[in-house]
């Protein structure tokens, strides 16, 4: 499933395409949304926001299109009325005179008055989104120590969209490595300084992944790997998907384990228990 940085980049792409002119036609495969096809024609796109892993297309007509990619959804941006060669099923299309934004495979799509979008069942439950909202280290640290979250292990807490929106499986491992925190610890187990380390790593890596297309390592690792002819997948992460390989910092063997039925990775020396 795409994580927050991937959805934020898709939102940027969709926004850039749809702000090139008014929507001249909207198409949807969902019968329950067919009535909006004529209603939204002629609308301008004011903004494309994200809330965790959801995308929100705000229209000048006073409506917002909500979509969640789930496991298989994908947005394409093409020249107007040009469609990709794919076996995926088209769910939603927005066309202007120059470009089309096309959503395939996703089934979680809704259209609501913009003033009601905060009451949407998913949107209303998602925590702060660092890639679309003003979120600070102090805010994340305070949230970590709130009674709702402080006694939960980071392996489950970081994947909980109620805590912070947009964190998924690769970011979970990467954030804890960058903060030097053993994955099974809880905010309640840490000093105030360690809690801030997690908050700082969270903001840093979400923004780095967004800016550098999923890369969470730093420039030194990337430049060194490229000089050696290594591929994107070989330099992308610090620990995620690197079980059995040496830690980039101290050479210790990266450990892979399962947490919440999903794989997690850590360095046993950089992240001592």
Q: In a nutshell, what does this entry contain?
A:
With 273 residues, the protein is an alpha+beta fold. It is built from 8 helices and 10 strands.
Biggest sheet details: 4 strands, antiparallel
Q: What form results from the Cα inertia axes?
A: globular
In the CATH hierarchy, what is the class of the largest domain? Mainly Alpha
Instruction: Compute the separation of the termini in Å.
Output: 29 Å
CATH architecture of the largest domain: Orthogonal Bundle
How helix-rich are the residues, as a percent range?
A: 25-40%
List the total number of helices. 8
Uncertain ranges: none
Percentage of residues in strands: 15-25%
CATH topology of the largest domain: Helicase, Ruva Protein, domain 3
- Mean pLDDT figure: 95
Question: Reading side by side through the largest sheet, how are the strands ordered?
Answer: 1-6-7-5
Total number of beta strands:
10
Class computed from helices, strands and strand pairing: alpha+beta
How large, in whole angstroms, is the Cα Rg?
20 Å
Number of domains: 2
Family: Belongs to the FPG family.
Organism: Marinococcus halophilus
Pfam families: Fapy_DNA_glyco, H2TH
Protein name: DNA-(apurinic or apyrimidinic site) lyase
Structural summary, described in words:
The strands form three sheets. Strands 1-6-7-5 form a four-stranded antiparallel β-sheet. It has a four-stranded antiparallel β-sheet with strand order 2-3-4-8, with helices on one face. A two-stranded antiparallel sheet has the order 9-10. With 273 residues, the chain is of the alpha+beta class. It is built from eight helices and ten strands. The protein folds into two domains: 116 residues, Alpha-Beta Barrel (N-terminal domain of MutM-like DNA repair proteins); 130 residues, Orthogonal Bundle (Helicase, Ruva Protein, domain 3). A hairpin with a 2-residue loop joins strand 9 and strand 10. It starts with a helix and ends in a 7-residue tail after the last strand. It is globular.
